[in-house]
Amino acid sequence: MTSQDTAEIIATTVRYCWALDERRFEDLEQVFTQSCHADYGADHIMTSPQEIGTFFGKVVDLRGVDRSQHLVANHQVVVDGDTATSRCQYQSHYLTLSAAGTPHVEDVGGVYLDRLRRTPEGWRIDQRVVRTNWRLGGDDPSATSTPQSAAAFIVAGTFAVAPGRREQVLSSARELRDALKDEPGMLDHSFTADPAPGAVRVFTRWRSENDLRRHLADPRVRDFRRQLGAAGFTEGALRRFTVRVETPALVPGLPIDTSV
Predict the structure, then answer these.
(1) pTM summary value
(2) Pairing of strands 103-119, 122-136
(3) Closest-CA residue to 105 (of 61, 138, 143)
């Protein structure tokens, strides 16, 4: 690693800010590789600098943002030959003026987690994950992250395997749960037998969508999914739910009848 590499990588993250704030979205080609993978949360996955630019262009127009200012700091860069990792903290400020000229400011803070690749044109971001830690003044106009204040992010439903292989699948699921029980962000992880032959009922609960995405990228999870294929996986009906408010399920003062 050289100090020049570090300086160029930091300059790449700064170039991103100027491209957004000056709305020169074509300059994002000097920030991201053409085959990049950018995860902005809330199902916003982009795979090219042009797609990222189009997304932000629509956001600022639809939300009526008059001015924005993106700032990055506290860079940590590790270079390994022609690849590198970088993380930095960001603050984004969005100014919207009402018809009467009254200003409304929304502030967002979080972290950019990047993997970069050295190209003939210089360092480019190949993978980016955006984590939003806080926001003030309303929703983030860029809609870049599932709100961290949500009580949970849930995946639930059923899937089917060959009836004779269901117990094997449930045993593997329990082993996976035990192996990953200390995984950050995992709140619940349950695979149980459904009354229908061969059907498995799923209920998993996560602190955020980013935690679920990190879980799915774990090699042990990928191995479990291969086991499902070998067990005759036929169909699945899983749904995702973002829970923003969590309250007790039982009505206060209404006891359960235990005399039965």
Answers:
(1) 0.55
(2) antiparallel
(3) 138
Which tokens go with 19?
A: 């491209």
3-state SS, residue 196: coil
- Residue 139 is given by DSSP the state S
Weakest-pLDDT range from 44-53, 118-127, 219-228: 219-228
| Rg of the chain (C-alpha set) | 23
| H or E stretch at 131 | strand 122-136
Q: Is 231 within 8 Å of 168 (Cβ atoms)?
A: yes
Indicate the residue type of 232: G
Going from the C-alpha of 243 to that of each of 38, 150, 155, 240, the distances in angstroms are 24, 6, 11, 10
Task: Kindly state the helix (H) or strand (E) to which residue 18 belongs, with its residue range.
Answer: helix 3-21
Residue 38's nearest CA partner among 23, 61, 20 is 20
pLDDT tens per residue, range 147-186 = 344 457 788 999 888 888 899 889 988 888 888 877 777 8
Phi and psi at residue 136, to the nearest 5°: -130, 140
On whether the CB atoms of residues 144 and 112 are closer than 8 A, the answer is no
Helix (H) or strand (E) holding 73: strand 67-80
Strands across the sheet with 83-97, in order?
A: 45-46, 32-39, 122-136, 103-119, 83-97, 67-80
Beta-sheet pairing, 235-243 with 103-119: unpaired
CA distance 61 to 109: 22
For residue 18, which of 72, 61, 94, 73 has the smallest C-alpha distance?
A: 72
* C-alpha count within 13 angstroms, C-beta hemisphere, residue 203: 7
* DSSP strand pairing (235-243 vs 152-160): antiparallel
CB 86 within 8 A of CB 13: yes
Dist. CA 185–CA 148, nearest whole Å: 11
